[in-house]
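pinging the channel bc i need a second pair of eyes. not urgent but kinda urgent?? the chain im working w is below, pasted from the shared doc
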Amino acid sequence: EPGQGTSEEDCLWEPCSPAQYLDQESGCQDCPADQWSTGGNMTSCNNCPDGKGVEPGQGTSEEDCAWKPCSPAQYLDADTGCQNCPADQWSTGGRTVSCTNCPEWKGVEPGQGTSEEDCAWKPCSSAQYLDQESGCQECPADQWSTGGNMTSCNNCPDGKGVEAGQGTSEQDCVWSKIKQPYLKT
């Protein structure tokens, strides 16, 4: 009340505005980044929930705390915050709400894809080889493959063969019927 103070100790700080806290030595101060305050005579600010933040001096309530941008290989779930992209998907991060699928026949481990370049060819099935330009291809006739990342197929032994796309091991190669030339007498 005016005229009632007899010493400096009788002086009180004015209540602080929202997004501020009261420092007893220097008065009202803006809340630091990722903290909020309703103002008044609060001597500290409240932390935003994990994964959320607010600019310094801008948080007036917990609702002002927004999800922070996600790291690459993550997407932003509105309820739970940043989540790793599932297998075979990638993301540059930020505030994207979904991940992008790798091209067909390519994949990446969960939470590892930061760009389409991270998507690698998936291992081929048996009787296939990996063409770096177009992906898995069937082995030609008389060749076999155990699959995986083999870039070529193995030839069947001489005199043995297998149909195209059917050779999964050397045991699939069988003796070929040898055509005898027609002899004229």
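so The chain has a mean pLDDT of 91. and The first strand starts at residue 20 and ends at 23. — does that match what u expected or am i reading it wrong
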